[in-house]
Amino acid sequence: AMVVSIVDAKVSAFINQERSFTFQLDTEDGGHYLLQALDKNDMKKWMDTIEKVSKTAAKRRLTYMGQNSKIQLSDHLVGAGS
């Protein structure tokens, strides 16, 4: 199993000649994922849900991080070896 953080992620339709109903997920830590839905309606539901959760989580993070702060992946690694 794989866990992907979608906080402040961007989701968009992806034109793919080999596979139908694909969409791209770009995460704030630089991850790029191509996902495939069952059909057009399913793809729209996934994209809408991911976008909504992404924005909600990003706003929620601001309540405890401060509005001028943006988490960097390296922030989690500082002091990890200490």
Characterise the protein shown here:
With 82 residues, the protein is an alpha+beta fold. It has helices spanning 40-65, 73-77; strands at residues 10-14, 22-26, 32-36. 38% of the residues lie in helices and 18% in strands. Strands 1-2-3 form a three-stranded antiparallel sheet, covered by helices on one side. Strand 2 and strand 3 (32-36) form a beta hairpin. The longest helix is centred in the middle third of the chain and has 26 residues, at 40-65.
Q: Residue ranges: pLDDT <50 for 5 or more in a row? A: 78-82
Give the biggest sheet. 3 strands, antiparallel
Q: Note the run of SSEs as H and E.
A: EEEHH
Q: Quote the average pLDDT.
A: 84
Q: State the secondary-structure class.
A: alpha+beta
- The number of helices is 2
Radius of gyration, taken over Cα atoms and rounded to an integer in Å: 15 Å
Shape: elongated
Number of strands: 3
The rounded distance between the terminal residues' Cα atoms is 29 Å
Strand content: 15-25%
What share of the residues lie within helices?
Answer: 25-40%
